[in-house]
Amino acid sequence: MDSPDEAPYFCMADTRCRLCQFELEEGDLVVAHIGGLRFSLEFNLRMSDTISDDFEWINLHTCARPRCMLEGRRVPFFHNDCLDFRLYDISDALIVAGDYAFDPPAHERNRRSRRIKSLLAPKLRDELQIRLPVETLMAIAGFLVCEYAVITTETQSLGTDVSDMTVDIAQDVYVSYTTIEGLRYVKSIGNTAPKLCNEDQTGLLSKQGESVDASLAGPTPIVKSWWRTISIPCDVDNITIKFDGLKVRGILIHNETIPDGTSNYVGWVSPEHPNNVIDITTFDQVNTFSERLMMTFFNCNTNGITGYTAVTSGISVTMIHARENDSTGFYADMDAAFSRDFFIYMPLDKGEYVTEICRRYALAAGDRISACLVFITNKGRNTLFGTSGPPESCLALDRILTPAPNGTQIWFNDSTSVYPKSLRYLAVDGLAPPVQRPFPPSLIPNPPYFWTHNTESWFVSSCSMEGIVDMTICRDTAFDHRPITGILLEYENGHRECLGQFRFDKTLKKMPVQHTRDLYISSLRTTRSYLYVADITTSPPHGYGGLSWMQVSRYGTLEWWSSFHHSIVRYTSITGQLTNLQTPFPNYTKQI
Q1: Percent of the chain residues past pLDDT 90, beyond the cut
Q2: pTM of the full predicted structure?
Q3: How many structural domains are present in the chain?
Q4: Which domain holds residue 39?
Q5: Among 32, 61, 223, 421, which residue has the fewest nearby CB atoms (within 10 Å)?
Q6: Domain end position, chosen among 425, 443, 461
Q7: SS3 assignment, position 432
């Protein structure tokens, strides 16, 4: 037999079992579907690995990316237990039905599991014919979620075929629906030509025959579903309905010339949305898109907003969230999609609102092009959502939006719908041409010496030490060393500032400091020599215990230089500068 290196490569299509349609996790025993009745041998999943199957003489690349340098044919994977549990052969309809148009958010996966348990518990009660408490039935159902999902997927795909159907919209047509796991989907299109269709990652949820301008009341059946506007020219009588064997997956107009059909249109989280979309890297208005673009929004300057959180890779923004209540659910979705990104929180004071949203286009660390956003408020606050560049790159900003003081809905692309993942497109009513403006002096860093010796992305925040009355410390207890990642500071005049990476879903501790003279900041290094803030106290330390301490007075400026590995604190006053860079290394290693 030829060498395994000469065997054909197959790439993992996604990280989802096509039978139960739940996530495949590292270490799961999985099987790849090569085609027809061909399957790989089972193996323990390791992402970004290459598995050689000598029996089938193939190489399996567990990349799960839409684009892979190996360019192997993308094949679906199964949990080995799900494949053993199945009752029928794997059909084309089953494979296509599990091929999601986009990844659902993390909270939708949990909602689906709860939905299945709620459907299964009454069935168990009827089958067992034993009076059991609801809690007991739900607990039993929890152990059978995957099996129930496999049975549902199999039985509903039996006797069905993947097909395209042509509908003459000049004639009467009819609509039928099907229910899958408690959600109603469109099974076939009829009546009149649909103008708006509502979809989630698996297919169309509903359709509306009203005009595009009509108000569509009520929530969508599933969180984070997407609306697409379908424009039908007057001279078109036929539309094509794409059917995956279970439900409608898309609607195409016969004379659409956009390549790749259903993958090339814009999906909106609401049917009421602006029509003009711009590319913030070029400022060009965009009419055609190479990706399956999905547009969501955040509310800017509406009542009740107390701040904004942006998630950034350093060279670009990936998400913006307006904090309007105490909900922390969005963090789970962001961690699932952007586990290695940085969270920047910009608090707002009473009466403060955003007056300008600007684009910073410059060189970041390592001479990488960076297209980030800067928020400017009516009280002079300037916040850069992205990595800080060297002073020579901080020359000018381009103002792209001027939100209304009484509220503006700002649309941006869901970062998972473009490659590479980034916030690239914006849409808002009344979009004006960009205007160049001076770079705020407060955002021009005075870089310490490690800036020139390190190519990491650095996120810089600073605050005055005068007038602070309260500090809320953010500690990440998910790590064994429990680092302090950020601080939210409150001043005697009601002003608020944020240092480092502050998240409301982490362990928070509020510490009054109005009657203290000095603060004591301790630092340590991990076993890999990453520098972190270990503790902040208002009293002198009693024994150092291996910690490196800084004494910070209640005047001067405190800076927090964060990277994806380090937290460097620098204090500047009239008496000089202090940093935590002198924190001892655990062993001899290369310094920052």
Answers
A1: 41
A2: 0.78
A3: 4
A4: 4-85
A5: 223
A6: 443
A7: coil
